Amino acid sequence: MRRYFARKLLIYGLTFVVAVTVNWMIPRFMPGDPVSAMVARARVSQPEAAEAMRTYYNNLFGFDEPLWQQYLHFWGALLQGDFGISIFVFPTPVGDVLLDALPYTLGLMIPAVLLSWFVGNWIGALSARRKVLDNTVLPAGYLLTAMPYMWIAVILAWALGAKAGWFPISGGYSLDIQPGWSGDFVLDALHHWVLPFLSLFLVALGGWAIGMRNMIIYELESDYSSYLSALGAPQRLIRRYAFRNAVLPQVTGLALQLGVLVAGALVTEIVFAYPGLGSLILAAIQNQDFFLLQGAFLFIVIGVLIANFLIDIVYVVVDPRTRTGMAGGTS
Amino acid sequence: MSTLPDPAPEAPSAETPVAKPGRESLHYAVRNPKLIIGVTLVAILLAIGVVGPMLLDNGNPNEYVGPQAAAPDGTYWMGTTTFGQDVYAQFVHGLRATFLVGVVGGAIAAVIAMVVGFLAGYRGGVTDEILNMLTNVVLVIPALAVLLIINAYMGVRSVAVQGLFIGLTSWPWAARAIRAQTFSLRTREFVDLARLSGSGTWRIVFREIAPNMSSYLFMMFILLFGGSILIASSLDFIGLGPTEGVSLGLMLQSAQQWSALQLGMWWWFIPPGAGITAIVGALYVANVGLDEVFNPKLRES
Question: Does any CB of chain B come closer than 8 Å to the CB of residue A254?
Answer without folding.
Answer: no
